[in-house]
Records
---
Amino acid sequence: MQQNSRGIFITVEGVEGVGKSTNIAFITEKLNQAGIAYVVTREPGGTPLAEDIRLLLLQKRKESVSESTELLLMFAARAQHISQVIEPALNDGCWVVCDRFTDATYAYQGGGRGIAQDKIASLEHLVQGTLRPDYTVLLDAPVELGLRRARARAELDRFEQETMQFFDHVRAAYLAMADQMPQRYRVIDASQTLECVQQDISVVLDYMISRHQA
Ligand code: Z5A
């Protein structure tokens, strides 16, 4: 279906292994059924250059990575992703479904690494201007559960090697953002069976679709 007005920007967030990739596939299936044009993408990444930066960020290395380097690389990838993928798609009237976005920076670099929120906010302003997600689906589950699922699956990347305390701070930062921005956030209990998680996501998506396709 051809869309005329600006598209809707949906981000999916949560700690590792909570089911972001699995449920993004479900979300896009629902958008297909509703005849909505969409782009599905991810961060860090989403363009060839930003995917190169992703590799730099996730690779395990002997050299320790400074917090500022990590923060700036996240926003460098994001700047490219916004200009090449997100803004053009939204301007074309497509919905954008993004696996993580700037709230991941507040959660991981802010909550996890302890970088001050105002530093992150100044880069957010520089790179994004007024661009913010319309909706954020937070898949929330106890950290141990997500990590168990993620670790059963593949070799650990640089982030996945962090301590439980780090991930507890990440989860707490996400839940704090959900409390502060109830209009944007939809929190789903990701510790349920996949069927129940997807029933909850369906309710949220039906609301978005009815609100924006009316
Ligand atoms: N990062 C950052 O620090 N700052 C930033 O600004 C950004 C990112 C943007 C890469 O992210 C890293 O970048 C990430 C944060 C950092 N750190 N880490 N680690 P990523 O999103 O690519 O990586 P990830 O979070 O590790 O994603 P993941 O491991 O692919 O997890 P997921 O997508 O949430 O889960 P999944 O693959 O859909 O599911 C995991 C398994 O659980 C799989 O086998 C499923 O079949 C299973 N599953 C899912 N749901 C269920 C339910 N409900 N029941 C049972 N089993 C389930």
---
Amino acid sequence: MYASDNSSSLSPKGLWETARSQLRLQMAKGTYETWVRDTICLSHEDGEYVIGVSNAYARDWLSMRLRPLIKRTLASLVGHAVDVTFVVQPAPVHDAAEDAPRPLLEAEPLVEAPMFESPALAGNGANLNPRYTFANFIVGSSNRMAHAVALSVSERPGAAYNPLFLYGGSGLGKTHLLQAVGHMVQGAGYRALYVTSDVFTTELISAIRTQTTEQFRAKYRTIDVLLIDDVHFIAGKEQTQEEFFHTFNALHTANRQIVLTSDRPPQAITLLEERLRSRFGWGMIADLQPPNLETRIAILQMKAATLGRQVSNDVLTLIAQRAHRNIRDLEGALTRVLAHAELLSRPLNTALVEDALAYLAPAQSRLSLEAILDTAADYFGVSADDLTGRSRTAKIAQQRQIVMYIMREAAGASLPQIGAVLGKRDHTTIMHGCDRVTEGIESDAELSRVVADLRARLYEPVRVR
Ligand code: ADP
Ligand code: MG
């Protein structure tokens, strides 16, 4: 089929070995060792390579994230386009415990049966929702840092960033990311345990009541990775904090990984003992911000694809515009739109979205271009004239570009409309400004925060003064 095939001299096995060694040079060491090193080429036919991987996480990760790079690398070796499929190649049957990395602490016997009974979560020792994986986590400027650190912690638990403290508003992906760490380290053979701080508290109280605190301690101090969700709920609970302090120390001293989430940074958790507050900041603190429009659309695309639904980009964009606050709302909005279409047998178009999501529509008056301009001026502490004027100082120029971006995103205004409001600027200037912000948000956390703040102001309920 192909005129020339440079690979003919190499066996599939040899070829894959060569590809692997090239891939190693093209990615972070941790990424390579976690996902690529132990893969094998199972078969090769007509330019299609079937690569065997050890577990489903690796398969999903390779398919979602690394496939383009792997295809390119293989293609450059064989001299023509190739396709790659990843399949789980079950490991030989043996005791899973043998797989686990040797514990750093002398393990005490675990006397208890698993404490988690939720049927939805049964099936893995760490109490994890199967949906909350890295493969299902969309990365954008709002969560890039948190994602990168979580991934790095998963690749080498206990080695750096210990503890990892993730914080952010409700519905922004803290639990998802925390459990993704759990899935990944479990896939690599570590013993992980996920609990909310409420469950930790409840178990502690019940252990005290039934005089089984030794078992309680054994359970929490003999794991490799402890994942505590919503840790702010231990505020004000003295005994829980005392016990958690000792758990923390035991694990940390033994280089076991601890990951915590909270709705706010440690210094903002009131009624938290100082010694815990300071420990929470020992490793790395990373935050999750509300996602921007592009990320929201990407998340909707993934969700729609997962549900096997064909949804046009117009529809997804409108849903993303309406449900901007957090990702939980975004998912709820998509579900609601799909349900409307199904139950009312209506075509899945923007008119349907308007109806289904009427409750989310902002008061139009607050999203007029003039209102956005005023809110932005107020937010930046400048006058509207500064923003529409000719000043070219870097600061004003950037603020002006942020306004262009927000007008485009929140009001869905056209480039000429925005140009007219912003001092009769040309539509190419507006386009350039929007692009600058779109790109800047990706790498500039401060810019990303400012845009999220300003957006939140526009949508927040009118304050009565
Ligand atoms: P939090 O714990 O911060 O309140 P969750 O982790 O429960 O938020 O996330 C809320 C919902 O949004 C979950 O269904 C989760 O899967 C989804 N979600 C959050 N962040 C992302 C993301 N980056 N990509 C895809 N889905 C996400
Ligand atoms: Mg949560």
